[in-house]
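Q: What structure does this chain adopt?
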Amino acid sequence: MSDSEPCDDCGEPTTDALSRTVRLTVDRSQIDAQRLCPECFAEWIDRYEREMQSETQVISDDGTDIIVD
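A:
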């Protein structure tokens, strides 16, 4: 990437020093990667925290997880 690439969310140019990259991997295979400016990264973190604080419960029993919605 050059020194000033656009944010994948808002499109504003962001220098490498300020950008953050969010990567989604499943079983060691990269599914998606997004380069985000500081503001969009903060919004992404807030959204992630809200979604993870849902009513979903994870019950572990003998090393297996059961997800209850």
